[in-house]
Structure formats: structure tokens, C-alpha cells
Write a structure and sequence with these properties.
The complex is a heterodimer of chains A (about 280) and B (about 130).
Chain A lengths: L8 H10 L6 E3 L3 E12 L9 E2 L2 E8 L3 E4 L2 E8 L3 E9 L46 E11 L2 E10 L7 E8 L2 E3 L2 E12 L1 H8 L17 E13 L4 E11 L1 H6 L7 E12 L1
Antiparallel strand pairs in A: 2-3, 2-4, 2-15, 4-5, 5-6, 6-7, 7-8, 8-9, 9-10, 10-12, 11-12, 12-13, 13-14, 14-15
Chain B lengths: L6 E4 L2 E4 L10 E4 L2 E4 L6 E21 L2 E20 L3 E7 L5 E11 L3 E3 L9
Parallel strand pairs in B: 4-8
Antiparallel strand pairs in B: 1-2, 3-5, 5-6, 5-7, 7-8
Classes of the chains: A mainly beta (about 280), B mainly beta (about 130).
Chain lengths: ~280, ~130
């Protein structure tokens, strides 16, 4: 294993876009280390929840023929054909991101809300994130399948909680496409997330203790559409200007949970990407 | 890989209850590696297989589970053919009558692939 700083990764990846191939290529057995620096945030749809700051977003990947580590996901690829890729995966469940104290002094510590304070209502049937018991980080494991076609990359995955945190499962189906025009690269991504009732109840429901002795509030399962677009302007082999926009729908959860002040979350980032 | 051996002698007749343990060097294949673009691709190459046994026994040569040929009792043998096989492929000599493994070796895989498609976006978490 070698810590290689590959200076042609970006160009190799982008060469693929121009020919209509949707996926980036990364060299085997070399670390891909990049960083996105700029200004951005992911809005927090929960009462009292901090928006997720996006000033420095690392981009880390390491691939072998079979194993890979890629931004929060560890995978083992069973089938790696031109059109079909099937992997066993494990990754951190992202739902806890809305329960983290993202104040600047806490960002790197990733402190979570941990309060035994009794429920404090902020208006009728509305509660704040910082009045809740801790929502723990969960580790999920499952399978992910990619289908690479001339009209884009289709992906489905299903994962279950293996850390005994929320004891449920989730799934995702998405379409991603990459297009390069001269120095510009556009990468739209749309999809739907499925959250089991166990996942929604754990993160967005309220326990009897949290409702001050009243009944539990259960959210039930949900389907959340999302859409993202990534726009890059290639400056040179190692640097690009980058803008990212994302939208995740939380309408089903927002209707069932008093935690929500918004029925969606928006992500915006403007900055530069540097490849080491 | 080696087979487990055990022999028993009754009178002057030696009965083989299991095959002797022959070292891998007794079965040689050339080439030892087949280079393909990616590991799902079948290997197509001219393969030379040569074996030398300590004693003359009737053997069959197998590519994975497919029998390539069988020979009467002899100590040495040679087989050449154009293989088209999914790797890694195990070539084995088995006793022609009992089917017991005598010796085996493997045609290994080397891929030309130096990169692969990336499966995640940096924005997957957000």
C-alpha cells in the first residue's frame, strides 16, 4: 500500500465525462486525497438544530480491485463488470448530522446533544433538538448495486443498522450523470431514500420521556426524494472551482414529527477543489 | 497444494488407500499467470502442462472440473492446448481409476487494470 499523490486523477476522471462515461476513475492502491474549501451549509430542518457548516469538505478514497474506502463508505466489490458493479458496503448513517452541535467550537469534536432536560415546548407540538436525548451515530451495512448505462449511472442500495442504535433499515435508488463541456463539468444526481419506521422513529420520533410522560410520538416509514447538482470549472489538473446544490425532501417526516420546522433540507457550497 | 497420503502394505502387495503426497513441482504449467484486462474476463492462451510422477500410475488431467484427457500408467506426461478458462483455474492430476487427487496447481490471474470507476461522490453524506 502506498500513499500516492496522484496528480492526474482529476484529468483522468474528467476525460471520462467528455466521452459520456459517467463515473470517475481512480488509480488502484493509491490514496485519492482532495479537499473542497469554500463557503457552504446544509440547512437543518429541525427546531433548534444547527445548520451543517461546509467550509472544508475532505474527499478521500482508496480502491483496490475488490476493497475500497470512499468518503464514509467501506466496500467489498463482488462483481465489477463494464455495466454492473455489486458490492457489500458499510457506512455511517447520515441522519445524526442534524443532531450534532455544529457550533464552530464543536465542529471538530462532533459533539452530540445530550440533555436530560425535560421537554421544552416552543409553541404547540413543537420541540427543539437540544431538548432531546442523544441521537447516537449508527453504523449500517448492506449491499449496493450500480448499473452503468449510456444514459447515466443507476444505483440502488439497502442497508440495515448493525450497531444496535435504531434497529431498522434504509434504502436508496438514484441516477447520476456526468457531462463535460470544455472546462465545465456538470453532474446531476436525483434519487429517493427510503427510511424504515424504526429509523424515522429513532431519529425524528419522541419517546415517552421526551414528551414529558405523554405517549411516544412515532413517525413511521417514509420515502424522501432528493436532487443534487455539482458544477465544476476545471482550472488545472489539481484545481477546480466548484459549486454544489442539493435538496432533500422531508415532507413525510415533517408531517408526523413535531421536531421539524421545515419540510426539506438544502445544501449549498461554493468554493474550490484541490487535489493533493 | 498437496494431497494427504497414507499407504498400507499387505504381504508384498502395496495397496494405496490414498494417493502419495506429491509436491506441486511435479505438475508444471506454462505460463503460470494469465494477463487479462479485468478479472471477469476469461483467459485465452496456449497452455503447456507437464508432469513427472515418482511412479507410473494411470492419471486424468482436469481443468477445474473438466477432464482434458486420461492416460494409462506412465510416469511422465505432456499436454498442450489452447485454454479459454475463467481464472483462477486449477489444473489437477487425478488417479484415473479412483478419482483421487494426485497433484494440482493453479493458473493465476493478473489484471492490466490500473484504475477503476469511483462509486461515491464527495457529497454522498450531505
Amino acid at each position: 500500500m502506498r500513499l500516492g499523490l496522484h496528480n492526474s486523477v482529476l484529468s483522468a476522471a474528467l476525460a471520462a465525462f467528455g466521452s459520456g462515461v459517467q463515473a470517475n476513475e481512480v488509480p488502484l492502491k493509491q490514496w485519492h486525497l482532495g479537499v473542497n474549501i469554500g463557503y457552504g451549509m446544509m440547512t437543518n430542518p429541525l427546531y433548534g438544530g444547527d445548520d451543517v457548516p461546509l467550509y472544508l469538505v475532505p474527499d478521500i478514497a482508496y480502491y483496490t480491485d475488490t476493497w475500497y474506502l470512499d468518503n464514509n463508505q467501506l466496500g467489498y466489490t463482488f462483481i465489477n463488470q463494464d455495466a454492473h458493479v455489486l458490492s457489500a458496503i458499510t457506512e455511517v448513517n447520515p441522519e445524526t448530522r442534524f443532531f450534532v452541535d455544529w457550533h464552530p467550537s464543536s465542529v471538530f469534536a462532533l459533539q452530540q446533544i445530550d440533555s436530560n432536560t425535560p421537554l421544552a415546548a416552543e409553541g404547540p407540538a413543537r420541540v427543539r433538538v437540544d431538548d432531546l436525548d442523544k441521537r447516537h451515530w449508527a453504523l449500517d451495512a448492506g449491499f449496493e448495486y450500480h448499473y452503468f448505462s449510456p444514459i447515466g449511472q443507476f444505483q440502488v442500495k439497502a442497508l440495515a443498522d448493525v450497531s444496535d442504535v435504531y434497529r431498522g433499515w434504509r434504502a436508496q435508488a438514484s441516477w447520476r450523470w456526468g457531462y463535460r463541456f470544455e472546462q465545465w463539468v456538470l453532474e446531476p444526481n436525483i434519487g429517493v431514500n427510503y427510511s424504515s419506521s424504526e429509523q424515522n422513529d429513532y431519529f425524528y420520533g419522541l419517546s415517552r420521556e421526551e414528551t414529558g410522560g405523554y405517549a411516544d410520538i412515532l413517525v413511521g416509514s417514509s420515502v424522501q426524494p432528493y436532487a443534487k447538482i455539482d458544477v465544476s470549472y476545471i482550472v488545472d489538473e489539481r484545481n477546480a472551482l466548484r459549486m454544489h446544490l442539493g435538496y432533500i425532501d422531508y415532507d413525510t417526516q415533517a408531517k408526523a414529527s413535531p421536531l421539524f420546522k421545515e419540510s426539506s433540507s438544502l445544501t449549498l457550497f461554493i468554493g474550490v477543489k484541490h487535489l493533493f | 497444494m498437496m494431497s494427504v497420503a497414507a499407504t498400507a502394505v499387505i504381504g508384498s502387495v502395496m495397496i494405496m488407500t490414498a494417493m502419495p503426497a506429491y509436491s506441486d513441482e511435479l505438475l508444471e504449467i506454462s505460463p503460470q499467470y494469465c494477463v487479462v484486462e479485468n478479472k471477469e474476463q476469461a483467459c485465452t492462451t496456449e497452455v503447456n502442462i507437464r508432469w513427472t510422477l515418482p511412479e507410473a500410475i494411470p492419471v486424468c488431467l482436469l481443468e477445474n472440473k473438466r477432464t482434458l484427457g486420461c492416460w494409462p500408467a506412465q510416469q511422465q506426461g505432456l499436454w498442450q492446448y489452447k485454454a479459454e478458462v475463467q481464472l483462477p483455474a486449477i489444473y489437477s492430476l487425478t488417479h484415473a481409476h479412483t478419482g483421487e487427487l494426485v497433484v494440482d496447481t493453479q493458473l493465476e490471474l493478473q489484471t492490466l487494470r490500473s484504475s477503476r470507476r469511483r462509486l461515491r461522490s464527495v457529497w454522498s453524506f450531505f
